[in-house]
Amino acid sequence: MILTYFFETYLDLRQHAAHKLPSLPKTLVGVISNEKFEKSRAYSLDKSHFHFVHEFVTILMDSGILFFRVLPWFWKKSADFVVLAGLNADNEILHTLAFLAGVMFWSQITDLPFSLYSTFVIEARHGFNKQTIWLFFRDMFKGICIALVLGPPIVSAIIFIVQKGGPYLAIYLWTFMFILAIVMMTVYPILIAPLFNKFTPLPEGELREKIEKLAASLKFPLKKLFVVDGSTRSSHSNAYMYGFFKNKRIVLYDTLIQQCKNDEEIVAVLAHELGHWKLNHTMYTFIAMQILTLLQFGGYTLVRNSSDLFQSFGFDTQPVLIGLIIFQHTVMPLHHLVSFGLNLLSRSYEFQADAFAKKLGYAAPLRAGLVKLQEENLSAMNTDPWYSAYHYSHPPLVERLAALDEPDKKAD
């Protein structure tokens, strides 16, 4: 864990040096204004300084928790909480829920100063934060309430499955998580997301007609087209799709509509997103994640009864949830390798989606839209190749513009 921290900090230092570069990359000169570049550089450096502090505090806390065996101590203390509540501490589900409640409380308290500083200092300083302190805490309260409603039944089900699973435990765990993922992908945008944002149908007009025409030309089963009030919290912009089979929905952030110069740029951005759908990128990624989840549960079943593993972390019993937490810690290096591989895959998908939009005739507006989004979001203009290769799921703007331009050069 500490070696990973040092490696990632080295990459962060390389990226920090890239943020300090006083000029734009050659391919962006004349494309991005100097004013936006300076604002982007200041924003990136602010976030970079904050990131160094946050990561340093995080590694100190995580190392301290492991070294001083805080987890086994708190596991025993959580049994006292169950007894104080007049319940049976020998019931592993009740014991685990009490433990998780304490962990959630601790994480909320320790993360709060960083969230407040990031939102109300850094984001506000650079003109992105639009939410009030009241809205911030209201969102946090809603998130806690959702966790309290959804968490206990999910955790209880996992513990029950592990206790009764037998030789096919990995299959049962994966099946449960697969069903849960499908349910959450269905429920979240309909029931949970509206608790935080207001979704309104995109008004009739030229933009709506163009989007519907594009969707129809690709046989995309568009059922609803929404605008979400992202501007109530931030001036960052986005767009996304969701839904299964013949019930697809597209959501545009109001900030995206405000920032793009014309409808063609918005439609071009959506052509890119529809490219992901048409090329089955979402499906392939979902399948890859399911395979990785199954392998992860398979690995967990191999060590879940290892008394040496539990004892090495200070536990004299073998609770189900603790076993999962310990397993996550031990395979962390593999997680980073897998994440790196998924980022490589994601970047290739982004190039393919850009090429798809270009084939539809949206090369120029997509290029303009990407530049506009880069400017308005003050995204980093200079990127270190090692840092971007390791961290970025999307290629840097320079690479995307070069890929969009390259076929034209060949055609000439």
Automatic annotation (TrEMBL):
**Chain segments annotated as transmembrane:** 56-75, 95-122, 143-163, 169-191
Active-site positions, per UniProt?
E273, D354
Catalytic activities:
Hydrolyzes the peptide bond -P2-(S-farnesyl or geranylgeranyl)C-P1'-P2'-P3'-COOH where P1' and P2' are amino acids with aliphatic side chains and P3' is any C-terminal residue
Q: Does the keyword Transmembrane helix apply?
A: yes
The primary location reported for this protein is endoplasmic reticulum
Domain Peptidase M48 residue range list: 201-407
Residues binding Zn(2+), per UniProt: H272, H276, E350
Question: What keywords is this UniProt entry annotated with?
Answer: Endoplasmic reticulum, Hydrolase, Membrane, Metal-binding, Metalloprotease, Protease, Transmembrane, Transmembrane helix, Zinc
Matching InterPro entries, A to Z?
CAXX_Prtase_1, Peptidase_M48, Peptidase_M48_N
**Residue limits of the CAAX prenyl protease 1 N-terminal domain?**
18-198
| Any one Gene Ontology BP term | CAAX-box protein processing
Task: Provide the cofactor note recorded for this chain's UniProt entry.
Answer: Binds 1 zinc ion per subunit.
Compartment(s) of residence? Endoplasmic reticulum membrane
Q: What is this entry's stated membrane topology?
A: Multi-pass membrane protein
Q: Which cofactor does it need?
A: Zn(2+)
Q: Name one GO molecular function term.
A: metalloendopeptidase activity
Which Pfam families does the record associate with it?
Answer: Peptidase_M48 (PF01435), Peptidase_M48_N (PF16491)
Please indicate if the UniProt record lists Magnesium as a keyword: no
- Xref: Gene3D superfamilies: Metalloproteases ('zincins'), catalytic domain
Q: Quote the EC number.
A: 3.4.24.84
| GO cellular component terms given for this protein | endoplasmic reticulum membrane
Question: According to its UniProt record, which protein family does this protein belong to?
Answer: Belongs to the peptidase M48A family.
The role this protein plays is:
Proteolytically removes the C-terminal three residues of farnesylated proteins.
Q: What is this protein called?
A: CAAX prenyl protease
Q: What is the lineage of its organism?
A: Eukaryota, Viridiplantae, Streptophyta, Embryophyta, Tracheophyta
